[in-house]
Amino acid sequence: MNVLVFVDANVLLYSEDSSDLKKQQTALLWLDELWRRQCGRIGVQTLNEFYVNATRKLNPRLPQDDARAKIRRYAAWQPWQIDQATLESAWSVQSRYGLHYWDSLLIAAAQHSGCRYVLSEDMAHQQYYGTLQVINPFKIGIELLDANP
């Protein structure tokens, strides 16, 4: 069985952003591999952040219908819904590690989703939060997935 990988909104946004072609290509490689292996996971928080930023901040902006279609496609990744248990976990992460609340919520959602990794450029590369490890996809390649069957 493949290890599960939780994806942060910044990776999704880079996959749509042609202003940095190297990061766009890297993000697309990671996402394509997660689709191929069926090991990608995501949270509702991530999808909301992607929608707002893709339709408002990308240049050119992603049309709302296109952003909605992409979000509907990610439903296959079992988006984690924020519930009371996730909030409690996020507060524990925030207290223990001193992360910002939104990052703590993302870590908690990834943990509840049973993930081994979080792909994010916004958090410390290779930092562990319990058994969950943050990976910056622009610093390490997808071969990481082969090293952890």
Give the SSE layout.
Layout: E1 5-7, H1 9-16, H2 21-37, E2 40-41, H3 44-56, H4 64-73, H5 84-97, H6 101-112, E3 117-119, E4 128-129, E5 132-135, H7 144-147
Parallel strand pairs: 1-2, 1-3, 3-5
Antiparallel strand pairs: 4-5
Describe the model.
The protein is α/β, with parallel strands linked by helices. Helix content is 52%, strand content 9%. The chain has a five-stranded mixed sheet. Helix 1 packs across helix 2 (21-37), helix 1 (9-16) packs parallel to helix 3 (44-56) and helix 5 (84-97) packs across helix 6. The mean pLDDT is 96.
Following the backbone from N to C, one meets helices and strands in this order, namely: EHHEHHHHEEEH
Round the mean pLDDT to the nearest integer and report it. 96
Query: What CATH architecture would you give?
Result: 3-Layer(aba) Sandwich
Report the sheet-strand fraction.
Answer: 5-15%
The CATH C-level name is Alpha Beta
In short:
The protein has 149 residues and is of the alpha/beta class. Helices cover 52% and strands 9% of the residues.
Pick out its properties.
149 residues; alpha/beta; Rossmann fold; 5-stranded mixed sheet; 7 helices; 5 strands; 52% helix; globular
